[in-house]
């Protein structure tokens, strides 16, 4: 039973940094990188085992003095642009960046087109028999 609890406790061990700048860089990096398991959390907020492994890897690279760009580049090369919360705009991520705007504009176009089409429909004319029946109903209602 104790063996099962050890990894959970290891994740809570505070990391030690040589300088406050290293700690700030580390914190910034894990907040900007996405957990590949949770997908809607960054590495700082995730409790997944893979997120813990990635935090340790980022920690080691920060301790080794690697630049932020090198750390991010390593993770992107290994896991793809999905590891970034803000992937770069390029051909493979074009849909990710612009699909919401395209869908919004398409929705607005459809709504305006539908509203305009409804406004242009001429009112239906009543036939002579229908007009006579309507007049008769209105007269009966006014008598009551």
Task: Report on this structure.
This protein is mainly α and 144 residues long. It has two domains: 13-87, Helicase, Ruva Protein, domain 3; 89-119. Helices cover 65% and strands 0% of the residues. It contains six helices and no strands. The chain has helices at 2-11, 20-32, 49-63, 68-79, 94-120, 128-143. Residues 1-11 have low confidence and may be disordered.
Give a brief description.
Helices cover 65% and strands 0% of the residues. It contains six helices and no strands. The chain has helices at residues 2-11, 20-32, 49-63, 68-79, 94-120, 128-143.
Which architecture name of the largest domain does CATH use?
A: Orthogonal Bundle
Compute the average pLDDT: 83
If you consult CATH, what is the topology of the largest domain?
A: Helicase, Ruva Protein, domain 3
Q: How much of the sequence is in beta strands?
A: under 5%
Helix content: 55-70%
Can you summarize the main beta sheet? none
The unreliable regions are 1-11
Q: What is the 3D shape?
A: rod-shaped
Report the structural category: mainly alpha
**How many helices?**
6
Listing every helix as H and every strand as E from the N terminus to the C terminus, the arrangement reads HHHHHH
CATH homologous superfamily placement of the largest domain: Cytochrome C biogenesis protein
- Counting structural domains, the number is 2
Radius of gyration: 32 Å
Number of strands: 0
How far apart the termini lie comes to 87 Å
- What is the CATH level 1 assignment of the largest domain? Mainly Alpha
């Amino acid at each position: 039973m104790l063996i099962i609890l050890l990894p959970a406790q290891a994740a809570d061990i505070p990391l030690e940094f040589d300088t406050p700048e290293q700690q700030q860089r580390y914190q910034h990096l894990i907040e900007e990188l996405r957990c590949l398991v949770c997908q809607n959390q960054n590495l700082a907020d995730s409790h997944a085992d893979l997120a813990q492994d990635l935090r340790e890897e980022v920690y080691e690279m920060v301790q080794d003095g690697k630049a932020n760009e090198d750390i991010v580049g390593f993770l992107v090369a290994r896991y793809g642009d999905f590891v970034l919360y803000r992937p770069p705009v390029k051909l493979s991520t074009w849909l990710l960046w612009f699909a919401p705007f395209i869908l919004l504009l398409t929705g607005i176009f459809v709504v305006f087109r539908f509203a305009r089409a409804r406004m242009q429909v001429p009112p239906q004319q009543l036939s002579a028999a229908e007009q006579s029946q309507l007049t008769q109903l209105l007269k009966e209602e006014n008598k009551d």
